[in-house]
Amino acid sequence: MALTETTARFTQGNLFRHVTVMSVTSSLGIAAIFAVDLIDVLFISMLGQTELAAAAGYAGVVMFFASAMNIGLSIAAGALVARGLGNRNRRLAAEHAASTTVVALAFGALVPLVTLANIEFLLGLVGAEGQVAELAARYLWIILPTTALSGLSMVAVAVLRAHGDARDAMVPALLGAAVNGIADPILIFALGLGLDGAAIATVLARLATAVLALWLAQSRHRAFCWPDAKCLRRDLRDALVIALPAMLGAVATPVGAAIITREMARHGSDAVAGMAVINRLVPFVSAVILALSGALGPIFAQNFGAGRMDRVLGTFHEGLRFLTIYVLGVSALLFVLREPVADLFDASGKMRDLLYLFMGPLALAMIFNGAIFVANAAFNNLGHPGYSTLVNWGRHTLGTWPFAVGFGMIWGAEGVLVGQAVGGAIFSVLGLWLGLRVIKAPCRDPISAHYTCPDQRMQVVTNRSYR
User: Fold this and answer.
1) Is residue 169 domain-shared with residue 302, that is, in the same domain?
2) Both 254 and 189 in a single domain?
3) 72 - beta bridge partners?
4) What's the whole-model pTM score?
């Protein structure tokens, strides 16, 4: 069944408005996820047992890798569905949505089986031992079996975004945060379940999020058809080609964070304390930036599927324009608030110096991370997801360690932050260059000159009236 012209909504209309609406609504969903994490940590810490908080922390590290898998699959779902919509083929989009849902269910069943069978070994790798390891294992035995629920919700939300339904795409995450926030105190304190109660609250939140996301996608857009074995075989390779590099790219982030934390530790506990506060500030002030990759993806993919490469390039430019405006505004706000924020955390000495540095000139460096997210959205949705992995790992290894060490030797703890920013700037330039090359020659790999589009005759519309 062919799409109506209005269904592929990103192939027409003002691109800057599309970018703004998708980014802001996506950031609200991301902020809700961060809020859930903070709620769990807050209530667990109120139990007054450091072992419980530590166990939740170790469990979170193990859970991150399952989350990275689901993030990758959701990126694949969004890209494939949006391309089908851009090509005015609703049936194809529904088949892609169904296929990636089946893949998410399969991985959601396999990952807990493998992980729980080796839970002691995995927790030992991240440093958990003794009673803390036992508590973390119990926590994971409750949550990991619901990995499939998390994958379903992420895929369904990505499908909603692919249809351009920004409002409904953020509602499931808000519901999950509300369920978690209500269930936590009841289960942890009123029923006396402690850490187990926090895990059960997360399970309930995942269930509510998945049910609502699937219902919205199907009732609003008939986004899924019944899975078909032939379609699944066709889509499996395409989904994994996008998902696997995205998973690997997601894993790079904690690697970079670990490198910075280790280098900061060389400069004393005050420096580590300052970095801990900065790490808690960053997700909130940059939620819109973190949302850019997922927000821009459907806009890129719909226009790519429609052969509107003028609007693909326009999306790239408008994404960077939106990013610049946002970072300038947030940087100004941080500069104004740096003294009260430092006072709130009772920061002094080196800790206060680092906060002032981050909330001063270095806040502008957020534009480099944002530029990488814009480039990643282009890579993942234009058939070059491997470049996303290349840029992410490069930024968090070669773009982090040598610069953090070198600048740290010159300027101490402040130099570690400056070095991180300098490395980010270099890899953001690389990402932007690759992104533009991909957009201007979408069917040709800009490095190996290998053709990647299945249809070499893809129509390219050349008028540039995308504003």
Assistant:
1) no
2) no
3) none
4) 0.82
